[in-house]
Amino acid sequence: MKNWLLAARPKTLSAAVVPVLMGSALAAHEPAAITWWVFFCALFGAVLIQIATNFINDALDFKKGADTSERLGPIRVTQAGLISPSAVMTAAWICLAGAVLCGMPLIYRGGWPMLIIGLASIVAAYAYTGGPYPLAYRGLGDIFVVIFFGLVAVGGTFYAHSLQLTPGALLAGFAAGSLATVLLVINNLRDVEGDRRSDKRTTVVRFGERFARAEIVFFTVAPFVAVAMIGRLGLLVTLVALPLAIAVIVRVMRSRGAELNRCLGLAGAMQWAFGLLFVIGSMF
């Protein structure tokens, strides 16, 4: 169980939970208000897709040679020989099947838009690392995260509750996607040398470390700008998380290699803080 928990990467699950919290918080002010069974279906479905994505990434990065004994980041179970790649992939498909079950009531409620969101999310979970054109290996991981861990996750949750989509929900989605992208780019910045050797052409490999640090600055600041554009005074409480954002930027500029693991922890804390403050601010 310890090895499977390690493979699930619980510290990354904020990328699945925070968007559902934000989308639901926004929907609570709509006429339809929040529907609790929708919230839990969306939450469990998002978490299962995130875990499945992590499992697929663990198994296929090892097979492609991106994860080796020289890895600077947290241990990966297939690379370490703790669980076989085939077992990890089987677990990924089980998680995706569970996500499908969670999504069925949402499809019944929301119709074809929810069906498209569900199918696209499942395909993307595999296509991020697998398939003939793996997104993470072509420098498209950043766009993938903004779309699926931001616009789709927040917008889809909001739509499942209210059966409509508003500019505010899309702005909140961009904010959530930006927070998740910060984590991805820090991770890729840390692993840039190994990614070069394995021909994993992330944006850091393609455009260099200076570009990556500029990207981190942009996506760290962007959530606060996006929330301000929503135009609801209560949401400005998210500015309480601004010192964490500044700390992330300062530490990323000073860190190299394995030191960036601490930056990941700080960026994760910022993501949780921003999301919870967003929920609190949406009450006013």
Structure description:
There is one protein chain. This protein has about 280 residues and is mainly α. Helix content is about 75%, strand content about 0%. The chain has a single domain, classed as Farnesyl Diphosphate Synthase (Orthogonal Bundle). It has helices at about 1-10, 15-25, 35-65, 85-110, 110-125, 140-160, 165-190, 190-195, 205, 210-230, 240-255, 260-280. It starts with a helix and ends with a helix.
What's the topology here?
Elements (H helix, E strand, L loop, with lengths): L1 H7 L5 H14 L8 H29 L20 H26 L1 H16 L13 H22 L4 H24 L1 H6 L5 H5 L1 H22 L11 H13 L5 H22 L3
In terms of DSSP E residues, the strand content is: under 5%
CATH architecture: Orthogonal Bundle
- Radius of gyration, in angstroms, nearest whole number: 18 Å
Q: Characterize the largest beta sheet: strand count, sense, and whether it forms a barrel.
A: none
End-to-end CA span: 42 Å
Task: Jot down its keywords.
12 helices, 284 residues, mainly alpha, Farnesyl Diphosphate Synthase, globular
Quick recap of the structure?
This protein has helices spanning 2-8, 14-27, 36-64, 85-110, 112-127, 141-162, 167-190, 192-197, 203-207, 209-230, 242-254, 260-281. It has 284 residues and is mostly helical.
